[in-house]
């Protein structure tokens, strides 16, 4: 069993991005600028955005953080989105999800200029990705594909099962893995899939993205499979200072022995999601997509 080290790969990618930023600056180009909008004080969102700011500093980006309380109106948030759309110094920005219930996440996503949509959530970017045009690809799917490539994991003709059909991970990942550059045969499974255990056991590459801690057990994984765990659920723990710990969607201790490759949680897909956002911002700053 080989552990897929997302932290190591993300660090390598950061070095590559930092070198490109330095080259850009030496040629008189502008410094890439990533902005984040954070609503409320969700613990996971706070941590994630703080990491994003540190990541920007590490590669030489400028970063901005816009904060709102939970009671911000949808109108006010949409006004800020439009302001960021029009700010020529900002190359890309994200509105951190989830948002409070009184705000339509889809309306906010669609209000973002696709040319600055470095999260890759806007329908225009999703549509471009589906038909193979250059686009901003959502960070987690891009990160997963990059891990497979950098570990030289064979995907050509392989049976890939993705458990989870979210618009952020499952659906876009299924498109990426089925494209000609990767050539996997993809099944998207979910809570209504019949014979789910059997479907998963047929996977050469199994991606767990269902959001249920330790959902994937040993009996769902075939010998020698590659297992990618996207889960990052916070669960209470009296063994940590914070009072919580991250759990993946895979029961790691039980499954790992059957795998050829597996990602840990934390330290697997998570760091790749963050560095993929930097990758997209650099593309935005250099006009490589639009």
From TrEMBL:
Residues 4-119 form the Tetrahydrofolate dehydrogenase/cyclohydrolase catalytic domain. It holds the Pfam family THF_DHG_CYH. Residues 138-286 form the Tetrahydrofolate dehydrogenase/cyclohydrolase NAD(P)-binding domain. It catalyses: (6R)-5,10-methylene-5,6,7,8-tetrahydrofolate + NADP(+) = (6R)-5,10-methenyltetrahydrofolate + NADPH; (6R)-5,10-methenyltetrahydrofolate + H2O = (6R)-10-formyltetrahydrofolate + H(+). Belongs to the tetrahydrofolate dehydrogenase/cyclohydrolase family. Homodimer. Catalyzes the oxidation of 5,10-methylenetetrahydrofolate to 5,10-methenyltetrahydrofolate and then the hydrolysis of 5,10-methenyltetrahydrofolate to 10-formyltetrahydrofolate. This is Bifunctional protein FolD. The gene is folD.
